[in-house]
Amino acid sequence: MFKTIISPSISDMNALRHVNNTVIPHWFESARSPLYTLFNPSHDLTYKKWNLILVHMDFNFIKPVYFGYDVEIRTYITKISKSSLTLSQEVWQNGQLRLNGNCVMLYYDYIKQESNLIPDNIRNKLMNHLISSKELEEKNRLEMKNKKENKKEFVESD
Amino acid sequence: MFKTIISPSISDMNALRHVNNTVIPHWFESARSPLYTLFNPSHDLTYKKWNLILVHMDFNFIKPVYFGYDVEIRTYITKISKSSLTLSQEVWQNGQLRLNGNCVMLYYDYIKQESNLIPDNIRNKLMNHLISSKELEEKNRLEMKNKKENKKEFVESD
Amino acid sequence: MFKTIISPSISDMNALRHVNNTVIPHWFESARSPLYTLFNPSHDLTYKKWNLILVHMDFNFIKPVYFGYDVEIRTYITKISKSSLTLSQEVWQNGQLRLNGNCVMLYYDYIKQESNLIPDNIRNKLMNHLISSKELEEKNRLEMKNKKENKKEFVESD
Amino acid sequence: MFKTIISPSISDMNALRHVNNTVIPHWFESARSPLYTLFNPSHDLTYKKWNLILVHMDFNFIKPVYFGYDVEIRTYITKISKSSLTLSQEVWQNGQLRLNGNCVMLYYDYIKQESNLIPDNIRNKLMNHLISSKELEEKNRLEMKNKKENKKEFVESD
Fold first, then answer.
1. Distances from the Cα of A92 to the Cαs of A153, B24, C107, in angstroms?
2. Do the bridges between strand B52-61 and strand B71-80 make them parallel or antiparallel, or are there none, so unpaired?
3. Inter-chain touch C67–A14, beta carbons under 8 Å
4. Which chains touch A (3 or more CB pairs under 8 A)?
């Protein structure tokens, strides 16, 4: 699991004083940086070198994210296929899972415009971060079991 | 169907010279504006009045979106439930479906923090834009049948 | 003058229900697209071809920009130097100048990492859009003279 | 001085593989968070409570910001007036000042739509972070004196 701490910025808040949905893809992109380094240690953003392309992303909004409290982004690898990998990412704030989502990335050759097999040396490193969706769900269920959100902190009356 | 034309901006392009994945949620949000007007004719962004909340969104990246050519965002209503609706949104450029996605919104009371039944007068207006996912797929298949992308326009060699 | 019409999106609004300051640089970037085309007709975003780099930008926030009303972005060229040009850009909404700003761009060689003289064929095209800051100020003063903002539209009480 | 560390994200990079100009206002907004807390300890984003409004911002782009290296945002208060304050903010990467800018914020009553005098208890806290523009320039000159950027890290040839 990769952990990233972010302080919501004023500019992340929408008219209903929640972090806006369009902000989350940026946060998840930032939280994928360690994974990009794993695939591209030289950070070389060229067609010849860069080797990942996003083909899918989804987001489930469970509870609002508020201003004034840090959030923790957790990034898990939940599936490794021949030439693609699936990530599960979560936003936690004040001990509560606020939202989660998945994305699928292809190991990709930008010049030939086709996907490639993920090499073994990278695959082995990815395996260290692998967790099944089921295990992840159970882990989160246990973590939230005894936590209650302090409702008073967030009154939406004006 | 709601149609929105957008010219990709330089600031929408990423290091691989495609429109970046984080831009698309903004484009789709903009393209939902006519729907927000349908639900909130007075555009009153307050807890007492505003009545929609996003609970899910997903995106499938089929082909890259490039700089220098307008894109067309198409927004369809593909499902109307008791207190929620599902939209399908697409990005077309140069006659090709570049990416699509769905989102689910709840008809929502921000003060009580609970969903409500969509009123009939709004439901009736929504029905005018309803199309099933299957019909939409078939419609798109036919539209792209005889169109070929001019590959020469987009050479990713440097 | 280049004119661009934009509908503020829900995701452009901040917690005080104004268009957020961080949105404006995006809008101005979009509104500079015709100028980019003038300098780069082939839209070739490569180090060898692309020839403009931003070195300064500033913004003056005069009145808030609200949701529910289109805005007009006006882009003027207010200065053409040997190897740089200065743009003045404005956001108008409901007949009022809401904010303005300037930016300076260099005609630039990304490979040699140095500025170049603006070629005459481009310079001649730029001249068509040239207006002095003073003329622009006077033009705007006259335009707003007989217009009064309908204050009732925007009550910030909740 | 307030210090904020940010890792540039893939989505912050533009087609020329620099951090895009539109990203910097977001970074500076984030880096102003400690100041917002100083003015608004309860983080209450309502018209009745929130008390700051941005009236000006400017940015000078000195050197590009690249992917793969953390940046340090430094936020100074360079002027405190009766009802406004001026901040100077800088982006440093690899020991080099990459860009800087200023912003002016009013101490503001959103209900009455007018500025107010900054109260003494806040003013006293602000004084701790005050530095003149001249001192800041001299401080930066000394810091960069013996540092040379490793040009080899950033070759813009493809």
1. 16, 24, 46
2. unpaired
3. no
4. B, C, D
Give the H/E segment covering residue B23: none
Q: What is the pLDDT of residue B158?
A: 46
Do the domain assignments include residue B154? no
Query: What's the mean pLDDT when you consider all of chain D?
Result: 93
Q: Which 3 state secondary structure label does DSSP give B132?
A: coil
Nearest to A140 by CA among A105, A103, A89, A102: A89
Q: Is the ipTM of this complex over 0.85?
A: yes
D30 and A11: CB-CB below 8 Å? yes
Q: What percent of chain B has pLDDT over 90?
A: 90
Domain membership flag for residue B158: no
Check D33 against A7: CB less than 8 A apart: yes
Averaged pLDDT, D36-57: 96
CATH code, domain carrying D65: 3.10.129.10
Contact D46 A10 (CB under 8 A): no
Please state the φ and ψ torsions of residue C18, each to the nearest 5 degrees: -110, 155
Provide the domain limits for residue C116.
Answer: 2-147
What does A67-117 look like in DSSP terms, one character per residue?
A: TTS-EEEEEEEEEE-SSEEEEEEEEEETTEEEEEEEEEEEEEETTTTEE-P
Q: What stretches of chain D show up as alpha helix (H) in DSSP?
A: 24-31, 33-39, 120-127, 133-145
Q: Which residues pair with B60 in a beta bridge?
A: A56, B100
Q: What pLDDT score was predicted for residue B76?
A: 97
Structural domains counted in chain D? 1
* CA distances to B33, B132, C68 from B38, in Å: 9, 20, 12
Tell whether D158 is covered by a domain: no
Chain A CB contacts of B50 below 8 Å: 15-16
pLDDT tens-place string over residues C106-145: 999 999 999 999 999 999 999 999 999 999 999 999 998 8
Q: How would residue C147 be classed by pLDDT, with cut points 50, 70 and 90? A: confident
**Which residue's structure tokens are 């300064």?**
C56
Q: According to the model, what pLDDT value does residue D145 have?
A: 85
The Cα–Cα gap between A107 and A94 comes to: 35
User: CA–CA separation, A24 vs A32, rounded Å?
Assistant: 12
Give the helix/strand (H/E) hosting D56.
strand D52-61
Q: Is the pLDDT of residue B65 over 50?
A: yes
List all residues 6 or more positions away from D17 whose beta carbon is below 8 Å from its beta carbon.
A45, B15, D66, D67, D156
- Minimum distance, in Å, between the CA of residue B157 and any CA atom of chain C: 10
Q: In the predicted model, what is the mean pLDDT of residues B129-148?
A: 90
Q: Average pLDDT over chain C, rounded to whole?
A: 93
Question: D100 with D86: CB under 8 angstroms?
Answer: no
Q: Among positive and negative, which fits the CA dihedral D40, D45, D47, D52?
A: positive
Confidence of residue D147 (pLDDT cuts 50, 70, 90): confident
Tell whether D138 is covered by a domain. yes
* pLDDT on residue D34: 95
Encoded amino acid at D29, one letter: E
Contact C44, C50 (CB under 8 A): yes
The length of chain B in residues reads: 158
DSSP letters for B34-68: HHHHHH-TT---STTT--EEEEEEEEEE-S---TT
